[in-house]
Amino acid sequence: MLTLTNITGLDLCLACVGVYLLKQVFNKKNPAYPPGPPGWPLIGNALDMPHIKPWLTFAEWGKKYGDISHIEVLGQHIVVLNSVKTAMDMLENKGAMYSGRPILPVGGELVGFKNVMPLLPYGDHLRQQRKNFHSVIGTRAAMDIYNQVEDVETRRFLKRVFTKPDQLQAHVRQTAGAVILRISHGYEVKENNDPFIIVSDRTMENWSRLTAPGAFLADVVPFLVKLPEWFPGAGFKRLAREWHDTLEEMVSAPHKFVVDQMAAGIAPESFTSNLLSSGTLSAEDEHVIKWSAATLYAGASDTTVATINSFFLAMTLFPDVQKKAQAEIDAVVGPDRLPSFADQGSLPYLLSGISMSGFPHCVSEDDIHDGYYIPKGSMIVTNIWFMLNDPERYANPSQFNPERFLANDGKEPETEPRTICFGFGRRICPGIHLAEASAWLSVAMSLAVFDISKAVENGIEITPEFDPLSGTISHPKTFKCSIKPRSPKAIALIEQDANY
Description:
Layout: H1 9-26, H2 54-65, E1 68-73, E2 76-81, H3 84-92, H4 105-111, H5 124-137, H6 140-143, H7 147-163, H8 168-185, H9 195-211, H10 236-263, H11 271-276, H12 283-317, H13 319-333, H14 348-352, E3 361-362, E4 367-369, E5 372-374, E6 379-382, H15 384-387, H16 418-421, H17 432-449, E7 450-453, E8 456-457, E9 460-461, E10 482-485, H18 488-494
């Protein structure tokens, strides 16, 4: 009898040959797949799958093969979309068919990320999580009750940056976590080494590694997860076990904090406390609430960190844009107060300079699109980077130019990034209003009081490199910049009581 502990190389080879022959028989019934790089027998395009900055490789495929391209890695079909039109046609117009998510045997099943919203299959749990989001933060009006939290924590951010400007990235991460944890769980973070922030950071590092395209062979050859941990090549199972424990701590510890606070009658208003007090809840209801909150605070904090760090890098590299944004703030807000959410509609140039990213979809049934065969279970990857850098849609896309999104001299604005960067179809990001609010206030307050420029070391100006790191959420490389108060009045605003 063949068991998982006595599989031989011959067994594996015979299995691969069997899969290959079956494919040759059944694929003849279907139209052609979308075009893509030619694969090898048995392994398909395993050697073509990019691990570093996959968006660049996907963009090259788009130039060579068109808006829709296809590869197959050991039986897993992957379809890459490089245009907004194709993404809209498939993910919006055929939303019911393309609302699934790929099953990730390592990250989803072994580690446990299958319970977070980005990996939930389309069904009851997903609908309930989205309902939770919508009821608490689904509209701008619903977000208003958290404006004071955003304001207080962003003022604290200004003080941290003023005191230790060389630790910008740490301040950004601390503040993003502080804002989201106050909103998600009513928890006020410690100034240094907060345990919830630390475990959240570790979890999001793991998430980024686990969900990158082609991260683990077991994600496209699922039977590998059945191998024992000691088996050659199965070392990923030890990592998965460790990362599972980290994820469980990130999800359960803040939830327990809220439950204990509610039992003591001292819980502040939060996403979790509002949902837990909404009526009689079953164990399954509480499970969904716990994972909804975890999705909110882990996901939103990491995207906010990436956005704000990218903003500081952009201001370092494009001082003319910074000056225009500051001039707008000075004209609308003046020098005697900090910007607030009430100013948002009066600062169109500033708003146009802020944007964000996406996750693969999965097709739930066979489809024929533009004459191409898309098999059930195919992973659908939207190359949002290229869509936002498409020269046919954006003039000089590599130029940081917020004015492109404003109507000027009778000229229509270019496509608003928000229609792309928060995803497509029924899987569009439900935290869009929270993400925008956090990023906008940090950017507005920072530009009101700080001048951001290139760092100078030993008399030499350092120009940081714009080289985003690989990952599901792409962060800029660590960079240096100079951050100085704009004036004595700016210092006075920074030093105001953060609870003002």
